[in-house]
Amino acid sequence: MTITNAVKVQNLSINYKGNTALHDVNLIIPNQTRTAIVGPNGAGKSTLVKGILGIEKLASGTVEILNETEHLNKIISQKIAYIPQSSQVNWQFPATVDEIVLMGRYPHIAHMLKKPSKLDKDIASHALEQMKLSDLKNRQITELSGGQRQRVFIARALAQQAELYILDEPLAGIDIQTEHIIMDTLKDFQKEGKTSIVIHHDLHTVSTYYDYVVWVNKTIVHSGPVETAFNDEWYFKTYKNVQSNQQFINFTNKGRD
After folding, report:
1. pTM for this structure?
2. Per-residue pLDDT for 255 more than 50?
3. Which residues contact 181 (CB under 8 A, 6 or more apart)?
4. Distance between CA atoms of 21 and 80, rounded to whole angstroms?
5. Which of 20, 51, 59, 145 has the most crowded Cβ, counting Cβ within 10 A?
6. Percent of the chain with pLDDT strictly greater than 90
7. pLDDT, tens digit, for every residue of 88-147?
8. How far is CA 116 from CA 74, 91, 123, 129, in A?
9. Kind and range of the H or E run holding 213
């Protein structure tokens, strides 16, 4: 069966602490895209992906993932790799780099108490190599820099061999080398027929890193291919009540450099 959409959301609403976090969300994210989710702070970007993943309870609406609407928990655990914001991770967890990356294989191990096979270990080792972490595999996660930690979580996602990768601001607070490694990895995913959905905060790099964009501010303002949907019109409609006109002009000028 050909999968045309990585994610399809219909009439989704989410309430948070008595307030409406998202309302009337209708969205299709095509398969085999590098998709950026953009919008102002507090727009509901993280809430949207958590709703898709079943982390946040839906007040209404339906979610379809990789053409599936049933047994989504199994689909999510095996076919989706989720990397939350760095600030949401307990970095004091006592584990080595190698152990954390090997956790990516757990959805494929029949029983949690079963030891990883040689194949599992080989896949994890290859993921470490791809993220240039082999020399750090025996280090504790607590000893690493922010960029190195983020690469560890990308390596764990690689080891999972998922079909859909969802990342929440993976480039926040990291060095430029790690940024390039991560974005090159997302390009490789796409070449393999996979999809990545990324909450992205730097508007000036959207057209460089992605080919599909979703504008969010409490609902879906607009979505589409970057070449037609990433422009002044949708920026202004998404941010008009948030940023000043001067900031809008600056964005417009920089966006066309």
Report:
1. 0.89
2. no
3. 131, 132, 151, 154
4. 24
5. 51
6. 73
7. 677 677 899 999 999 999 888 765 567 888 999 999 999 999 999 999 999 999 999 889
8. 20, 24, 11, 19
9. strand 212-216
Q: Is 122 helix (H, G, I), strand (E, B) or coil?
A: helix
C-alpha 95/C-alpha 98 separation (Å) is 8
Q: Looking at this protein, which amino acid is placed at residue 183?
A: M
The pair of three-digit structure tokens given for residue 159, joined into one six-digit string: 């080891």
Helix (H) or strand (E) holding 183: helix 176-191
Q: Write down the number of H helices and E strands in the chain.
A: 10, 9
pLDDT at 257: 38
Query: Which structural domains are found in the chain, ordered by start?
Result: 31-52+81-238 (3.40.50.300)
Q: Tell me the mean pLDDT in the region 209-230.
A: 97
| Residues forming a β-bridge with 9 | 27, 63
SS3 26: strand
Instruction: Report the distance separating Cα 12 and Cα 163, nearest Å.
Output: 23
Angle at CA 47, nearest 5°, toward 233 and 153? 105
Distance CA(153)–CA(140), nearest Å, equals 13
pLDDT at 256: 39
Look up tokens 């390039």; give the residue: 180
* DSSP helix/strand/coil, 67: coil
CA distance 255 to 251: 6
DSSP string of 84-112, one letter each residue: --GGGS-TT---BHHHHHHGGGGGGSSST
